[in-house]
Amino acid sequence: MSFFAPKQSNSNSTPKHIVDPVLQPWIEKYRPRTIDDVSAQEHTVAVLRKTLTSTNLPHMLFYGPPGTGKTSTILALARQLFGPENFRSRVLELNASDERGISIVREKIKNFARQTPRAQVVSSDGKVYPCPPYKIIILDEADSMTQDAQGALRRIMETYARITRFCLVCNYVTSQSRIIEPVASRCSKFRFVPLDSDSAHLRLSHIAAAENVTVPPAVIDMLIATSSGDLRRAITYLQSASRLSSSTNPPTPITPTDIQEIAGVVPDTVINDLATVLGIDVGSETAIEADTEKGSRFQLIRKEVKRIIRQGYSATQVLAQIHDLVVLHPTLNGRQKAQVALVFAEADKALGDGADEELWTLEVALGVYKAVSYAS
């Protein structure tokens, strides 16, 4: 006779990992469900769309800048291939930056790769999925894997290619890439490009409309400018701005300045004020006399730099924005821009070594003023 009662199963228990859509991050809530939902990657989508008809999927290597849809694309493709019921048993997703050692390859990856795919489960949604006779292993941030792990992975890719296909995801593939050539050569390469402004604008407008968030075009433009082609970052900024706006009653309108504050970007007014003191024409109403004495100009520049640093702005961010302003300025000549570039290079090295931010911001400001004022 057993003294322990059998554990009763609770058929009415709440399913695990169910997230309230209100609390769900928008980057997950609006992740593409099909490859046709992927934005601005026409070539890659066109090629992968054909694999849905032939179901003959090679090993793949997705590379490109962050936030361009690499992981979303392979997940969407896997859902279309296997359907929701077979997805869990047919797809293994790993982040190689966390699980990058050879032990993970020999144990978790090899064990999954060698298993014969389970029989197809009929989908409950009434749709018919191709469900080809192989599994997919997704290795995100694959360039973080060690050399030994990649060596072991190469052999697994060869041995179990009939029943397992690999998709490696990384940011860059170059001659100096940390992905070894034997692994890269076994994969079909797909390059993901940064999103163009029109595609990003369309996607962000769609999300804002779905969330009932009023976003002026100027705010969308600022989201695109601060995210630099990274749609994931832009969506995160939009969600943060929405939360900030709805925290007051009534909700406050979202402005471009709000986006800059959320993104950690120095506001344009601050950069323009500094540029004006440095003698760069930015169309500001505030002008500095050209014949101001050198001592007075130095005091003006030092005062402006001190004010910016005291406001808590990052020196690296300030210098990056001043750099872009100078390099793209239409009235400065090539010699002036070259002299300024040398100053920025020295400052970048010094700040990377831990130098004082205020002193080097002042050093760069004086160098820019000298180049703009005296270079011929």
Largest sheet: 5 strands, parallel
Mean pLDDT: 87
Number of strands: 5
How many distinct domains?
A: 3
Number of helices: 15
Radius of gyration: 27 Å
What share of residues is helical?
Answer: 40-55%
Helix/sheet category: alpha/beta
**Content of β-strand:** 5-15%
Written as H for each helix and E for each strand, in order along the chain, the element string is HHEHEHEHEHEHHHHHHHHH
Quaternary organization: single chain
CATH topology group of the largest domain = Rossmann fold
Question: Which ranges are low-confidence, i.e. pLDDT below 50, for 5 or more consecutive residues?
Answer: 1-16
Strand neighbour order, sheet with most strands: 2-3-4-1-5
CATH superfamily of the largest domain: P-loop containing nucleotide triphosphate hydrolases
The CATH class of the largest domain turns out to be Alpha Beta
Main location: nucleus
Domain AAA+ ATPase: 56-198
GO molecular function: ATP binding; ATP hydrolysis activity; DNA binding; DNA clamp loader activity
Organism: Amanita muscaria (strain Koide BX008)
